[in-house]
TrEMBL record:
GO MF terms, alphabetically ordered: Glc3Man9GlcNAc2 oligosaccharide glucosidase activity
Biological process annotations from GO: oligosaccharide metabolic process; protein N-linked glycosylation
Gene3D superfamilies per the UniProt record, alphabetical: 1.50.10.10
A UniProt-annotated Pfam family: MGH1-like_GH
Presence of keyword Hydrolase: yes
Protein name: Mannosylglycerate hydrolase MGH1-like glycoside hydrolase domain-containing protein
InterPro entries: 6-hairpin_glycosidase_sf, 6hp_glycosidase-like_sf, Glycoside_hydrolase_63, MGH1-like_GH
Keywords, in A-Z order: Glycosidase, Hydrolase
Similarity comment: family membership: Belongs to the glycosyl hydrolase 63 family.
Origin species: Streptomyces daliensis
Lineage: Bacteria, Bacillati, Actinomycetota, Actinomycetes, Kitasatosporales
PANTHER family in the record: MANNOSYL-OLIGOSACCHARIDE GLUCOSIDASE
Length: 459
């Protein structure tokens, strides 16, 4: 399936619903491809990075010019990146979107390098991608620090990857939707309406993207005085814990890349520490036992710069990926993963994308409850990092079983495991490959001493 989705330079998530190259999809796909072809995995990331903008942003879509404009919306003629984004350094030779997706790319690059270090060194892979990845992180920590407190912010619900999360409902209420006749939803040609965002939500997505485009894709720029949130210049600006957790994990990956190249890793370590501190200070909610999103477009008199959004998303558990969290935070997160709101290992076998007890929970609709394979891959990694080996092993087994039985579905009903969305989905297949490879190389469990003693006595 990954072979069928390969275009010669990159892998599309699916030929029908997603016929172009997507940013974090390609990072996850490269992580899986490294087990089949480290060369192709490197090229996957190189192709994506070749469309990087001058200000450092990695666009969330790189458009394939051979795909008809009507096959996907918003299409290149909507984004108009090469003209509307000229002041921000958008490339002239390729059309892209103007928004971004979560920064998992440095982690992917480091894992791809480790799969075949000799090939990576021969091709100069790390030497070529490192400056681009460092520029990408600078963009997020400088241009996107809209709250002025050290965290990267998103300016569109598509940016954190969890497009239709209930976390965005309240911030979106203040956005006037685009007129219904001003756009055509190509996604409904490939997906069931009950699985996809509503027309009202989609109209608001279109409005935000059009306003960002018409503003030249500017983020605000300039120095920020703490408490004066640049986010209020946007109709939608949110600090998301999942985005920032992946940024922290990727900063740690950059320390490995820098060390491998003989560069100074200290700036990346320092940035990771600052981000981790800001993440806990800004987004940790002890009563919820997890991290929450912060809406930056709040009351102008709010000295904290916005308000926490009281919705429980799986994004609030992804900081388990971040080394250096306070022990009490890690312990609370692990309790929440297994508790009533997410029920991993008790009520469900794969982590749902949203609170099982939440008022907006829907087991079918895009990011409002279904289980996604990339989220579960990230959680499996976080569990393992914190010594939760048995839980990580169980999650890995559940994910592999679900991927195979669902036809490598885009996402699943968390209760029944029924496939939802498109099938033969790129990152589902790729991350299943990665989990399978990890399972094959996992050390055998240590023999139980009591049972060995019994066997010895029987002899």
């Amino acid at each position: 399936m990954l072979l069928r989705n390969w275009t010669g330079a990159a892998t599309v998530p699916s030929h029908g619903l997603y016929p172009h190259q997507w940013s974090w999809d390609s990072a996850f796909i490269a992580i899986g491809l490294r087990h089949l072809s480290p060369l192709r995995a490197q090229r996957e990331l190189e192709t994506l990075l070749s469309a990087q903008w001058g200000d450092g942003r990695i666009p969330h879509i790189v458009f394939n010019p051979s795909v008809p404009l009507g096959a996907y919306f918003p299409s290149p003629d909507f984004w108009r990146s090469s003209t509307a984004g000229a002041d921000a350094g958008a490339p002239r030779g390729v059309e892209t979107s103007g928004i971004v997706q979560p920064p998992v790319h440095a982690l992917a690059a480091w894992l791809v390098h480790q799969s075949d270090p000799a090939l990576s060194r021969r091709r100069g892979f790390l030497a070529r991608v490192y400056p681009r990845l460092a520029a990408w992180h600078r963009y997020l920590t400088e241009h996107r620090d809209l709250g002025g407190h050290g965290l990267a912010a998103i300016v569109h619900p598509w940016e954190p990857g969890m497009d239709n999360s209930p976390c965005w409902d309240a911030p979106l209420e203040r956005v006037e939707p685009a007129a219904p006749g001003s756009f055509r939803r190509a996604d409904l040609d490939h997906g069931a309406p009950d699985d996809r965002p509503t027309d009202l939500d989609y109209g608001r997505y279109v409005r935000l993207a059009a306003d960002y485009r018409d503003g030249g894709y500017r983020d605000g720029g300039g120095a920020v005085v703490p408490g004066e949130a640049r986010g209020r210049a946007h109709a939608f600006a949110v600090e998301d814990p999942g985005v920032n957790a992946l940024l922290i994990a990727s900063e740690h990956a950059l320390t490995g890349i820098a060390t491998s190249l003989g560069a100074d890793p200290a700036p990346h370590r320092q940035r990771a520490r600052r981000l981790t501190k800001a993440l806990v200070e800004r987004l940790w909610e002890p009563e919820a036992g997890q991290f929450l999103c912060r809406d930056l477009v709040g009351d102008p008199g709010d000295a904290a710069g916005g308000r926490l959004i009281p919705e429980r998303s799986a994004a609030g558990l992804l900081p388990l990926l971040a080394p250096g969290l306070p022990r009490e935070v890690t312990s609370a997160l692990l309790r929440t993963v297994r508790g009533d709101h997410f029920g991993l290992g008790t009520r469900v076998r794969l982590l749902p994308s949203y609170d099982l007890r939440g008022h907006a929970f829907d087991p079918y609709r895009y990011w409002r409850g279904p289980a996604w394979f990339n989220v579960n891959w990230l959680l499996e990694r976080g569990l393992r990092q914190h010594g939760e080996t048995a839980s990580a092993d169980a999650l890995r087994a559940s994910a592999l079983s679900a991927a195979a039985s669902s036809g490598f579905a885009e996402y699943l009903d968390p209760y029944t495991g029924r496939a939802r969305g498109t099938r033969d989905f790129g990152w589902t297949a790729a991350l299943a490959l990665d989990l399978l490879a990890a399972a094959e190389h996992a050390p055998a469990p240590a023999p139980d001493r009591a049972s060995m003693s019994e066997k010895g006595q029987k002899r």
